[in-house]
Amino acid sequence: MLTAQSKSYLSFIRSLPIKEEYSKQDLLIEDLLLEREGQLEMYYAPHNDYINPLAKIIIVGITPGWTQMERAYQAAVQSLHRGETEEEACKVAKIAARFAGSMRTNIISMLEELGLPHYFGVEKASDLFDAKSNLLHTTSLLRYPVFVDKQNYNGHSPSLTNHEFLYKKAAESFSQEINMLSGPLIIPLGKSVEKVLRQMIHQNMIQAGNYLWGFPHPSGANGHRHKQFETAKPEMIQTLRQLQKNILS
Question: Is the pTM of this model over 0.85?
């Protein structure tokens, strides 16, 4: 999905020095700024420019956070310094950054409890981020990182569904991306993502399909995620069973 704009930013990234860790002062800069709307700022990050068209499972977040952005830059800069192509740099950035940190650990734990690996012929859920990564595509409603006063945007303040600028960006990028994929299982992370996707379905921006509704947002800051998971678990397991029946029929 590399556009002329993306290639321009990747050209700039090629000039960045390799670092073990980047600060916000290194990356949240005008050279990497995509758009600004009041206190909202959207910055370029390379990892969501890579799409896995063969994916059977899509995990959808709100927007990449700072941790994902920083890890994506670490991987992309190293890749470009090795002389790899811009497309390769985006791919290694995706592998390194997707739901990095405790969020990935929590996602894997919940997928295991649902028994999801069984339905896709995978030994364990962590393989989806490693040996069986060809089955997985991770993305965000807002493809590029959005910050409010340089802090991670959480989907609530302002509300994604009610904010014209943010909703337009989400609708444009996600509908384009989902149409490149063929009937995967879509896992929205949390109520905010679910609300946006339901609204987009209602407005015929995307098709109704195989959605694992009720999956909690995996952030450690979501103190209700365990209760939310237990409440939604029976329906999610039923969705997986029905998906398997449809595949076999």
Answer: yes
Retrieve residue 199's tokens: 């609204």
Per-residue pLDDT of 109-141, as tens digits, reads 999 999 999 999 999 999 998 888 899 999 999
Cα distances from 224 to residues 107, 116, 155, 166, 195, in angstroms, run 15, 22, 17, 26, 17
* Residues near 65 by beta carbon (within 8 Å), at least 6 away in sequence: 145, 152
Domains of the chain: 41-248 (3.40.470)
Residue from 181, 232, 217 nearest 62 by CA: 217
Please list the alpha-helical segments (H only) found in 203-224. Answer: none
What tokens does 242 get?
């029905």
Low-confidence ranges of the chain (pLDDT < 70): 1, 247-249
DSSP 20: S
In which residue are the tokens 């295991």 written? 112
